[in-house]
Amino acid sequence: MTNRRTLILAGLGAATALPLVRSFLATPAIAATGAKFEVTLSDAEWRKKLPGEAYDVLRHEGTERPFTSPLNDEHRGGLFRCKGCDLALFTSTTKFDSGTGWPSFYKPIANAVGTTTDNSLFMQRTEVHCRRCGGHLGHVFDDGPAPTGLRYCMNGVAMTFTPASSWMPKK
User: Fold this and answer.
1) Which of 135, 115, 107 is nearest to 37 (CA)?
2) Which CATH number fits domain 4-165: 3.40.440.10, 3.90.70.10, 3.40.1190.20, 2.170.150.20?
3) Residue ranges per domain, the chain?
């Protein structure tokens, strides 16, 4: 006999297993396009270069849990860079608190990211990837603030942060 507890436990189990199964069995959307990137490594080289969850997110389109990235609470001036190839992706001046639990930006640095259509999880979204290495960063939605109206919802584990004080000249 199925009861409420069984249904809840089955749902939690499926929710936990789906990202793992998807990340290792699915072909990443960017791979399906046949796109070529400036930085290319074998899967073994990416696995060696990137720590566990960063590898899953950047190379297999995984998603980190919300409210787990320290970058979500990063408020200093500086640059958010791709963890795969160190390309500068977003400036801190375009970061905002979307309340979603992921670092969010309203605009990337020019020529820093690319997009593809993501039809996974029974919906259509716009996936955002690093234009230099093809690493999956997150998704872009049209519910962001002015001036663009866009919300680039990024996985913090796919990025690093460089404070402005480490690369800007002293005045």
Assistant:
1) 135
2) 2.170.150.20
3) 4-165
78: Cβ contacts below 8 Å, ≥ 6 apart: 91, 92, 161, 162, 163, 164, 165, 166, 167
pLDDT of residue 139 exceeding 80 = yes
Find the angle CA(39)-CA(164)-CA(136) to the nearest 5 degrees: 30
CB atoms within 10 A of CB 169: 4
Task: Provide the β-strand partners of residue 91.
Answer: 79
The b/e string for 113-126 (b: 16+ C-beta within 10 A; e otherwise) is bbbbebeeeeeebe
| Cβ pair 141, 127 in contact under 8 A | no
pLDDT the model gives residue 110: 97
Give 90 or 20, the one with higher predicted confidence.
Answer: 90
Q: Is 153 in the active site?
A: yes
Annotated catalytic residue: which of 82, 85, 130, 153? 153
